[in-house]
Design goal:
Number of strands of chain A: 0
Structural class of chain A: mainly alpha
Helix content of chain A: over 70%
Oligomer: heterotrimer
Number of helices of chain A: 3
Strand content of chain A: under 5%
Largest sheet of chain B: 3 strands, antiparallel
Distance between the termini of chain B: 10 Å
Chains: A mainly alpha (93), B mainly alpha (157), C mainly alpha (134)
Number of helices of chain B: 5
Strand order of the largest sheet of chain B: 1-3-2
Largest interface: A-C, 58 and 61 residues
Radius of gyration of chain B: 20 Å
Shape of chain A: elongated
Largest sheet of chain A: none
Order of helices and strands of chain A: HHH
Radius of gyration of chain A: 17 Å
Helix content of chain B: 55-70%
Shape of chain B: elongated
Number of domains of chain A: 1
Structural class of chain B: mainly alpha
């Protein structure tokens, strides 16, 4: 049973890698700056999952502390970018 | 909600008094503290502390259920070969007034089926929401008011 | 048994993360993509954290995992809300099949005359009686 769990963790890591790749596609493709920021935001969310999955795969529960910190911090970049976009929108007219 | 902080302190004190900081002791201390606060609450300006606490727990449970449902709906939309969504930006009139309530409502809306809060009007009279299925804006607004706003009001008052 | 539950949580979590990625690729405009990113993404990450909590099985890890999930629940909608508003204000294109747009024309672009340095966020005006029904 433990082997099945290890396999599940590996498979989930692969799946999250695919999801991160799709978010990358959105960052590369755009077409607008907010789209790219949204891609970055999603990658932040997915990296929390990646850290949790690595913690399961390696049995290192300390890694969950890193996931906790990332969950707290990852949205700050999105907020900063949003303020930038907002101010840019102001100057338009 | 500062009675809740007091309740946590009471749980801690209970665990200290029983001599071990185990989880069971903390939970029992929390329950005893809740019973005490429910009885004494009138003197502290809150007569129905326990009732409001369990309503908050109910809101949290309902919210997790809604989050699961909304994710399933997004999954169905994503996996469908053709795009059948009818998105719209909708103004939802607000009954809740305080900033805390509006913040909670906006956050809950963003994570529930088919809606994403965009902005609050300058005078806090309505919330602008992007909906995946906005054929009938009034139905969407009614649904939000019925499911969440009423529960939030029940917790805060 | 707990291994089975943990594995199940991992599978469904990974599924929802893939859904959120697919949504980001497939959906036609930013706002709909954000539906996928916030809802399915948050639930996916939460399920994977649940898997970790079940797998390690200790109270400390469970507390940490649920705290992480709570932070995600707090921050994900805030990020989506701030970004969505900024994007709308910036004039991001909205899908042409969008039925109605109650926010159109509600923002006052440009700088106010009263010493406005752009630090306070712009606010839309309230909806009129005709804005509600598409």
């Amino acid at each position: 049973m433990a082997a099945f769990l290890a396999f599940s963790a590996q498979a989930a890591l692969l799946a999250v890698a695919v999801a991160v790749f799709m978010a990358f596609y959105r960052i590369a493709r755009g077409p607008s700056l907010p789209d790219r920021v949204m891609g970055l935001d999603m990658i932040g969310l997915m990296s929390v999952s990646v850290v949790a999955l690595v913690a399961i795969a390696t049995g290192q529960e300390v890694l969950l502390d890193a996931a906790l910190a990332m969950a707290l911090v990852s949205f700050l970049g999105t907020v900063a970018f949003s303020r930038f976009i907002e101010r840019r929108g102001r100057r338009k007219e | 909600m500062n009675l809740f902080a007091l309740n946590l302190v009471l749980a801690f004190v209970w665990a200290l008094a029983t001599g071990s900081l185990s989880e069971v002791n903390l939970v029992v201390g929390f329950l005893v503290g809740m019973a005490v606060l429910h009885v004494v609450g009138g003197a502290l300006g809150d007569t129905r502390y326990a009732v409001r606490f369990f309503r908050a727990v109910g809101l949290a449970g309902f919210f997790l259920f809604e989050l699961a449902m909304s994710s399933v709906r997004v999954a169905i939309d994503v996996l469908k070969p053709e795009m059948t969504m009818t998105p719209a930006v909708i103004a939802v009139p607000l009954d809740v007034r305080s900033d805390a309530e509006i913040t909670l409502l906006a956050n809950l809306i963003s994570l529930t089926p088919g809606t994403l809060s965009l902005d609050v009007a300058a005078d806090k009279s309505c919330l602008y929401v992007h909906a995946m299925y906005g054929d009938d804006p009034e139905a969407v607004a009614d649904e939000i008011k019925r499911s969440f706003e009423r529960r939030i009001q029940a917790v805060f008052r | 048994m707990s291994d089975l539950i943990a594995a199940l949580a991992l599978w469904t979590g990974a599924f929802f993360l893939i859904v959120s990625g697919l949504g980001a690729v497939r959906f036609p405009d930013l706002f709909m993509r954000m539906h996928a990113g916030t809802k399915a993404g948050t639930l996916g990450a939460g399920l994977i954290l649940l898997g970790a909590a079940v797998e390690f099985g200790s109270v400390g890890v469970a507390t940490k995992a649920s705290l992480t999930f709570a932070f995600l629940l707090l921050t994900a909608p805030v990020a989506a809300h701030v970004l969505g508003r900024a994007a709308y204000y910036d004039g991001t294109e909205i899908w042409e099949r969008t039925r109605s747009d109650a926010l159109r024309g509600k923002y006052d672009h440009g700088w106010r005359s009263d010493g406005d340095d752009g630090a306070s966020p712009p606010r839309p005006s309230a909806a009129g009686p005709n804005d509600g029904g598409g």
